[in-house]
Write a structure and sequence with these properties.
Length: 190
């Protein structure tokens, strides 16, 4: 996409840059993430990145928060909290809904293992996801057990990574999510 390909309304540039950061990272990894690649993907001038985010780390942290907002917001699992089967189905759909979000977040998680300055953003990402899962489980009548919530999200996170690495199929992902609910003693309450 060329920088002149479409006009960006004032205020839309930030959003376009965040979405572009996620897409570029999902396709090329963090090694392929340059200001020029992001600006080209967003259809804006690359100086806009420094205007909004100051530097690459500011852009990455903001994009991670933005991606979590989209992912958690898209899930809205509370809507399905009255039916465990529907809850599990929508949990799997959320994982598969926007692969770029998942891939971007995995790239950021891995990068945080090498760059401590990114670790607070990754900790917040996990806190938010675990809280969303806990809220859904509580709505289904399950006990609020922080350790179990973390363990369940870790299992879901690992299954998602396996799915994107093509180590398991979508059917195997769905079966594993079903088994996870049964394994914690709540066959009707994930």
């Amino acid at each position: 996409m060329s920088n002149e390909s479409r006009p960006i309304a004032y205020g839309d540039g930030r959003e376009a840059l965040l979405a572009a950061t996620m897409r570029v990272t999902a396709r090329k990894g963090l090694r392929g993430l340059t200001f020029r690649a992001v600006a080209d993907e967003a259809g804006v001038n690359n100086t806009l990145i420094a205007h909004y985010f100051r530097n690459r780390d500011g852009l990455l942290s903001a994009a991670l928060e933005w991606s979590a907002d989209r992912s958690i917001g898209a899930a809205d699992l509370s809507e399905y909290a009255t039916d465990a089967d529907s809850f599990r189905e929508h949990l799997v759909r959320n994982v598969l809904g926007d692969p770029d979000i998942e891939l971007f977040q995995f790239e950021m998680i891995l990068e945080a293992t090498r760059r401590p300055e990114l670790q607070p953003s990754v900790r917040e990402l996990y806190r938010r996801y675990t809280a969303a899962l806990a809220a859904g489980r509580t709505s289904l009548g399950a006990d609020d057990n922080p350790g179990l919530n973390r363990a369940m999200f870790a299992a879901l996170d690992g299954l998602t990574l396996q799915y994107f690495a093509r180590a398991i199929t979508v059917e195997e992902l769905s079966e594993a999510v079903q088994a996870l609910g049964i394994a914690v003693g709540t066959p009707s309450r994930l």
